[in-house]
């Protein structure tokens, strides 16, 4: 049975048909063409499908589309500026060489958006725990952790030495 979802995706109002059993991952990728939302484990363990729903990072593979009714959803496609400019968070990932194959990157960047959005500063260990829900098979996590730490510091105005 088909239903109609009414929500905001990447700042734009959306009405889209979906099957009642459909995950938000399927709706975003297959119906709206937002391919930054990756299909990984499909059980909420790898973080590749992470999106923000009302500012909170969720695994869209285990989040039913019907739960998104009236919500604000953000994917990586919604981060770029009007002229395609990157955010400070995206620049931090590039500057810290935190991207290799790129499969996990959109989900981790969205978690970083949530982390930065708190306005808090974090210890390196706290950041490690906050991104622990993401599986990366390429980088060994050091550069990802460096990028998240840099993004938090740059976006929240902290200027200091990098913690090791």
- Broad structural category: alpha+beta
Largest sheet: 5 strands, mixed
What is the count of β-strands? Answer: 5
**What order do the strands of the largest sheet run in, or round the barrel if closed?**
2-1-5-3-4
Radius of gyration: 16 Å
Number of helices: 5
Shape descriptor reads globular
The N- to C-terminal Cα distance equals 53 Å
Which residues form runs of ≥5 with pLDDT under 50? 159-164
Strand and helix order? EEHEEEHHHH
What is the mean pLDDT? 93
Beta fraction: 15-25%
**Proportion of helical residues:** 25-40%
Key features of this structure:
alpha+beta; 164 residues; 5-stranded mixed sheet; 5 helices; 30% helix
Give a description of the structure.
The model is unreliable at 159-164 (pLDDT under 50). The chain has helices spanning 24-31, 88-95, 105-117, 124-130, 142-155, and strands at 2-9, 12-19, 50-53, 56-59, 72-74. Strand 1 (2-9) and strand 2 (12-19) form a beta hairpin. The radius of gyration is 16 Å and the shape is globular. It is an alpha+beta fold. Helix 2 runs antiparallel to helix 5 (142-155).
Give the SSE layout.
Elements: E1 2-9, E2 12-19, H1 24-31, E3 50-53, E4 56-59, E5 72-74, H2 88-95, H3 105-117, H4 124-130, H5 142-155
Parallel strand pairs: 1-5
Antiparallel strand pairs: 1-2, 3-4, 3-5
Helix pairs in contact: 2-5, 3-5
Summarize the structure.
With about 160 residues, this protein is of the alpha+beta class. Helices cover about 30% and strands about 15% of the residues. Strands 2-1-5-3-4 form a 5-stranded mixed sheet, sandwiched between helices.
């Amino acid at each position: 049975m088909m239903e109609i979802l009414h929500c905001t995706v990447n700042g734009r109002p959306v009405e889209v048909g979906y099957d009642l059993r459909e995950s938000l991952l399927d709706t975003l990728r297959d119906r709206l063409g937002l391919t930054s939302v990756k299909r990984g484990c499909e059980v909420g363990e790898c973080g590749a499908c992470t999106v923000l729903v009302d500012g909170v990072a969720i695994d869209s593979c285990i989040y039913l589309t019907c739960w998104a009714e009236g919500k604000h959803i953000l994917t990586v496609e919604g981060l770029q500026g009007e002229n395609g400019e990157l955010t400070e968070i995206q620049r931090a990932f590039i500057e810290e060489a935190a991207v290799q194959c790129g499969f996990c990157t959109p989900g981790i960047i969205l978690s970083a958006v949530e982390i930065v959005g708190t306005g808090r500063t974090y210890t390196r260990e706290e950041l490690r725990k906050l991104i622990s829900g993401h599986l990366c098979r390429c980088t060994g996590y050091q550069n990802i952790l460096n990028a998240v730490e840099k993004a938090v510091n740059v976006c929240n105005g902290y200027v200091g030495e990098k913690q090791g």
